[in-house]
Amino acid sequence: QVQLVESGGGLVQAGGSLRLSCAASGSIFSINVMGWYRQAPGKQRELVASISGSTNYADSVKGRFAISRDNAKNTVYLQMNSLKPEDTAVYYCNAVVKTAYFSALRTYWGQGTQVTVSS
């Protein structure tokens, strides 16, 4: 019903930058929250940043990452600056969506994109 497609991951040296994008498509009536999570090997998935009417960031990325959203395109972006090796993870896009006026909110996930930061 709803698909999230991420792009923009890759390999970058420490101190470098990357920009992730995530476009939502399908049966979308409205999107409540969009966000980015990440999961490093052997660790739990954690919230990186989210955006609805306001933004929310994990303490570890404050001042380095910036989340933004284009509502007309149902797209969310994550600008990642001053990247560190500990930012290495699979990054997942997340959206909380209503597919119709009377439908309940449902959470959808993208397939993930790898971000690798070399030291």
The general outline is elongated
Structural category is mainly beta
The helix/strand order is EEEEEEEEEEE
Helix content: under 10%
What is the distance, rounded to the nearest whole angstrom, between the alpha carbons of the first and last residues?
40 Å
Q: Report strand %.
A: over 45%
- Using only C-alpha atoms, the radius of gyration works out to 14 Å
The low-pLDDT segments are none
Mean pLDDT: 97
Task: Please render the helix and strand layout as text.
Layout lengths: L1 E6 L2 E4 L4 E9 L3 E10 L6 E6 L3 E3 L7 E6 L4 E6 L8 E10 L7 E4 L3 E6 L1
Parallel strand pairs: 2-11
Antiparallel strand pairs: 1-3, 3-8, 4-5, 4-9, 5-6, 7-8, 9-10, 9-11
Verbal overview:
- The protein is mainly beta.
- The chain has strands at residues 2-7, 10-13, 18-26, 30-39, 46-51, 55-57, 65-70, 75-80, 89-98, 106-109, 113-118.
- It is elongated.
- The mean pLDDT is 97.
Provide the descriptors you would attach to this structure in a database record.
119 residues, mainly beta, seven-stranded mixed β-sheet, four-stranded antiparallel β-sheet, 11 strands, elongated
Short description, anyone?
The chain is mostly beta strands.
